[in-house]
Automatic annotation (TrEMBL):
Biased amino acid composition, Basic and acidic residues: 1-10, 61-97, 159-173
Region (Disordered): 1-23, 42-97, 151-173
CDD domains listed in its UniProt record: SF1_C_RecD
Domain STPR residues, every copy: 104-172
Protein name per UniProt: STPR domain-containing protein
Residues in coiled coil: none
Amino acid sequence: MLESTNEHNTHTTSTTTALPYKKRKRSDSFWGFKRRVPLEDISNNKKRRTEYYKEKKRQQRSKESIVEKERRLRQMRESARMKRSIENESPSQRESRLKAQTEARLYVLRERAQQRCANESEVQREARLYDLRERAHQRCANESEVQRKACLTDLSQRSQERPARESESEREMYGFHKERNKRNRVKEPVTAKFYGKQGVTLQRTQLPLLPCWAATIHKVQGLSLDAAVIDLGPKMFEDGMAYVALSRVRTLQGVALLGLVEKKITSSTVANDEMD
């Protein structure tokens, strides 16, 4: 009995002096059997993992910063190049430059009977010019009818008679279309001559376009609008101007007034006598 107890005791002491291993849970078994990982290895793995992800994020931020720096440098070089080109131009070339962003609203200042485009028609700068002409025509065919402002009819019929493509210079110079109809172009410049004293003759050639963020009351006669911001301030100088401006809008909810001066809202005495 004593010998057996001694063997049992030696066995127990050998088990108690084992190395400090951490048992994983049964759910954390790897490939169907339990693994015992030392505590030091677990802490080292965590440190290496955190350092790895930190380094990865730092590299990603550095790449993004490099891309952003390259983009800014390209913008600076492009702006400097444009500035140098403008400085080297003559005054006449500077005046001939028409600055208009994509989809900018413009006004036609001269009538175009051949293009079926009347005075004060609304046009728009096109993003892509003649290369996507057929595709744009097919896309516009499925849309609802475009509201035409002071423009004549049969726009598409007249535009089909024009050639499909123009030269590169005409693409750059005359890239405008009429109210989403990308086949109708304002592509012919206007040449005006002025005869002064002592036989001096002045001549100017330009595109008949003007930025269209606003219009005078005289220019909008005959239009029917859904909404408009109307300035009835002290600059009104004619009888009936307020009536012409307010009657352009179809509903009262679409009217927004700026700088209202009631004294400037007048009517003609001749019109009053006829109404009486």
